[in-house]
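Review form for a predicted model. The reviewer records the input and the model, then writes brief findings.
Reviewer: anonymous (R2)
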Amino acid sequence: MKSILLLLIFLFNGFGINAQIINTTNLSALKTINGITFNPDELKKSKASVFIFLSPECPLCQKYTLSIKEIEKEYKEKGVAFYYVFPGTYYSKKIINRFLIKYGLKSTAFLDPDLKVTKSFAALITPEVFLLNQKHELVYSGKIDNWYEDIGKRRTVITEHYLTDALDDQQKGNEVKIKKTQAVGCFIQ
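Model under review:
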């Protein structure tokens, strides 16, 4: 009997019945790089929202900027909002702005100096992505793709497109098949 109950709990959790809902009140703590406070009601205007945690000096964040721009270009047209979150106080606004300009990243960039939002998402790595549906349920978190399996272990051919697959599933109204992967990159301090 115990094993049947444990199996049912595992299955229900595995199929997203207990989807994690992100506490959007913490998002109101976010301020853009220009000092404008974020209104969490903005999330309701999009079919989905992608939060990308970045660090200007992280080599993998720099290398992933082209992929980020391509994904944004394709999915913004489909009603998906993209947001960059820069956790901590290590980088100045000037350094973050220089990073955004150098790599042509144009979505809204937020500062999270007290790591309140970073903790809400349980973000540990940059780059790390979090996909929320319109109900603020976390439907995917982790890597953008499998270009990097580990630090220093880069594939020549990307075979898994985790974020775009999750976005496609979500856009079609299907359950996201892969809900979580382990992000690879620089630790958030």
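Findings: The helical segments are 2-14, 59-76, 93-103, 116-121, 162-171.
Further findings: The two ends are 44 Å apart (CA to CA).
Recommendation: see findings above.
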